[in-house]
Design a protein that fits this description.
mainly beta; two-stranded antiparallel sheet
């Protein structure tokens, strides 16, 4: 069985970084999704698709996958770079273009 280990990205509706600190282990789907003939909802016989395990670190998630004999793919997140900038930088002498409205 294959699992995917990743750290989720921040959603567009989220301004903070609170819910992206945990690492997620989720199972890759094994059965295709097909519509139910009676109701028409999409469904599958694969119940592992509903399981998402949260871990504090990637090493914990990898250790869990190895302990249970799962093949895993680890996706490292792209770290953001924060460039500090102050309001006074708008009026600095070393600025290449003049400040305008």
């Amino acid at each position: 069985m294959r699992v995917r280990i990743f750290r989720p990205a921040k959603t567009a509706m989220q301004s903070g970084r609170a819910k992206i600190q945990n690492w997620i282990l989720e199972f890759e789907p094994t059965d295709p999704v097909r519509p139910d003939p009676l109701i028409g909802w999409n469904g599958s016989g694969d119940t592992d698709r509903q399981v998402r395990l949260r871990f504090a670190s990637a090493e914990d998630a990898v250790a869990y996958a190895e302990r249970h004999g799962y093949e895993y793919s680890l996706t490292r997140p792209k770290e953001r770079r924060v460039r500090s900038k102050t309001y006074s930088d708008n009026f600095a002498y070393h600025r290449l273009q003049p400040w305008t409205h």
